[in-house]
Structure formats: C-alpha cells, structure tokens
C-alpha cells in the first residue's frame, strides 16, 4: 500500500475526517514549533547578549510556556482522535470484508475462508499503529518539515543549504531499509493466516480426531506455524530497532553539522546569537517528522499488509444477482439438468440430473467428495455451475434459470438445514420465531424438542448463546427441525440431518421428513444412512469425474 492509499479513504469513510483533522493539527504544530523556537531564541539571546533582567524576559517566557501547553494539547487531541479513527476504520473495513466475502458465495469464500476470518479478526487490528503513530508523522513530514525549512531560509541561508543537502539522506536510508524488509510483513500475515486456518480446522475436526485417538496429531504442525509467526514478528522488530538506530545516528550527525557551522560563525562574528539559537532549535524539528516516519514505519507494516489483503478481497468481482421474480414452487418444480461444477482435477458433481416436486422426497447419495453439498449450493443459487442448468419452473410450465432470479424471492421459499445449523443467540422460544404456543408444542412434540425445553432451567425462555451454545449437537438439530416444521416452505433441503444423532434422533428426522412431505413440501436429502435413503421417493447418485485435460498430467 502507498503511504496514504486513496482506497483506504474510499472504503473507510471515518478516515477522511481524521485525515483532515490531522492535516489541520499538523499545520498548527508547524506554527507552534516555529513560534517556540523564535521565543526561546529571543529569551536566551536577550539574557545573554543584551543583559536583560528577569522582568524583561517574563513576556517571552510566558509566551513560551503557552506554546508548550498548546503543543501538549494538540498532541493530546491527535492521540485521542487517532484511536477513535483507528477503531472506526477497522470496524468499517471488517464489516465490508465480511459482507463481500459472504456475497461472493461459497466458492470464493471456500478458497481461503480461514484466511478471511483471520484477516477480519486479528489481521485488521494491526491497522491501529498506522493510524495512531505512522499517519500523523507522515502528515507532519509534509507540513512541519517544509515550514521549518522556509523559516530557516529566512534566518540563515547557509544553515538552510546544509539542511537541504542532508535532508534527502533520511528518505534514501528509509528506502534502503524498505527494500531490505520488502515482503516481510506480507509473509508474516500469510504465516498468521496459515496458523489461523490450521487452528480452525483443528477445532472443527476435534470431535472426529478424539473419536479416533488422533487429537494430538496436529500438535507439532500448529507449534511449527506458531514458531514461524514468532520468528517473523521478532525479525520485524529486530529490523525496526536497527533502522531506528540508523536514522537516529544520521539525523544526529546532520544536526551536529548545522551546529558546528553556526558555532564557527558565532565565534567569528558572522552570525548574531538570536539567529544562531533559533536555527539550532529549528534544526532538529526539520528532521524529526521524517525520523519518526522511519521509526514508525515498521509499526505500521503489518497493518498496511492487512489493508492490502482487505483491498484484494473487496475488489474481487461479485456475481451479479438476477432480477426476475421466482415462480411459486408450491405448484412448480426445480429441474437440474447436466449440472457440473469444476473441482480440483475434475468435476464434482458431474452431469447431475434431478427434479424436485411438491410432496416428493429426493435423496442424494454418493461417496464423500463426489459433490453432494456442492450440488445443493448450486441448486440454491449460492454457487454458479460450470456446466448444466438449474431452472425454477412454475405452474404454467415456464421456467427461469436460477441465476436470473432475485435470490430473495427464491430463498423465502426455501428452508435449508446444513450439517451444523446456524442458530442466533436468543431465547429458545425466540429462535423458533415466538410461534403460537399450541403450534409450537405440536411441532416440538414431533421432534422431541419439548423434552429438551422441559429439562432446561428456564424452559422456553432459556437464553442460548451464538451457535446454540447451551445445547448439545443433537438438541440443536431438534431445534432446527422444529423451526422447519413451524415455518413450512415449498422446498426443504436437509444436508446430512442424521450425521450427529443417535437412533432416537434419527427417528425424529424420519418423522419430520414424513411430516414435511405430507404438508406438500419438496424435500431434498443429502444422505448416507440407509434408513434415510429408504424414505426417499427418488434416489439420485452423485458422481465425480476426472477432467480429461488433467488425465495423465504429471
């Protein structure tokens, strides 16, 4: 990212006001620095050269104290609003990254879902040093340094020439340090994203690993990634310390050159004391902003790398949603013909045909990796197929491609229960939509949720956390099935509904599917268990196929 990338101001609107405030405070700081130097030079010069007494310099000292207080206030305002702007900008970027990743669909999010999660949580937090420390110094380098140089030119052109001759050395050394560390922050962020992906995968599969006694298997890999991230962070800090030392040494020597020239001319009478003192006070202020930019550069590189990654996500093209209204599926059907989705090294699924009609149950069967869940995502319009069609056909036998349909008009006719139901935090009754108690009790009795509610401390008023925290996996499945019964839709999709259930829970699912079929819903099952497959009116085998272009490839 550039020192101030315009994309940051475009995506994080709160940064615009903060940038304007920072520019204004930078200009105020420049004026205060010049005023402070002149007041200090006149106070000391009057006391030393002219023999002024304390009452004579009191106005100058009072003005100097007022300037010092004003500089402290400006710094405090800058710090206060920097933290606020950082928090708001990070929140805005995080919200947009999550929304864009969700709108991109399962295929785009699935390519690097864990990386997006890491970016939206830990990654973007690294932008705070950029806003709090780096950006203000960058603005000061663009305002304070030119202002002090112009004042130095008006006071002493020889010192001005020395300052102008040595000042370019600072950005040159900063560039050399940047070349040495190019890509280090990006590699550090990539390491952190790999660590986050590994940990997320481990947590998601921990029950399965424990079932097979392999829960400690990934331990060495996670530790290795953690050590790699630690080494990358330590290396960045090491280079930051070394580059800071180089910049401090360079600016100190440059100020010393100015001081030697001023001292020699004071001795020979070529310069008055007040002017010499003013130049000596201003000289460090010329280098200070650039020195701080270099010192804070490494504190912001992680945030800059995260911002680049966020921009890459935000600028990825999104699928264009359709605008046509979906036909009424209660009197229509969904036709899938020749459906194929490209997978790594082939197609999964390949050439899939099925038809979903009201009051009929269709089961998708096939080995793991054949593309059953992918087929569901394509059928729901979440994933554009690479071959074949998915058409929604109304009662008048006219069909429309799912890609041309407004997703909202289609999805309101669909109930989708993935393998792990999505449950918002709230009370048990609120998660069911606060239905009529009689309807709720009938549906809960069919799924066994009534027994679950009776065992909870507050019954239907029990508060559950995000994801159904407070319930077991089987109880969450019962809750999701009850919601499906209470909110009947034309199409119900159940993805492995018995995967985490015992025999009693499986019986609940079978009864629920029967009830949905009796209500006239078209039911699509992704099934492995024979009992669930036997319940279906039609069984469709999902198969994967190798891509001919990859067969025999090395």
Commentary on this structure:
With about 550 residues, this protein is α/β, with parallel strands linked by helices. It has two domains: about 5-315, ABC transporter type 1, transmembrane domain (ABC transporter transmembrane region fold); about 330-545, 3-Layer(aba) Sandwich (Rossmann fold). It has helices spanning about 5-10, 15-50, 55-110, 115-125, 130-155, 155-165, 170-180, 185-205, 205-210, 220-265, 275-315, 370-380, 405-410, 430, 435-445, 450-455, 475-485, 505-520, 530-535, and strands at about 335-340, 340-345, 345, 350-355, 360-365, 385-395, 400, 415, 425, 465, 490-495, 520-525, 540, 545. The strands form four sheets. Strands 8-11-12-5-13 form a five-stranded parallel β-sheet, with helices on both faces. Helix 2 (about 15-50) runs antiparallel to helix 3 (about 55-110), helix 4 runs antiparallel to helix 11 (about 275-315) and helix 5 (about 130-155) packs antiparallel against helix 6. The longest helix has about 60 residues, at about 55-110. It starts with 5 loop residues before the first helix and ends in an 8-residue tail after the last strand.
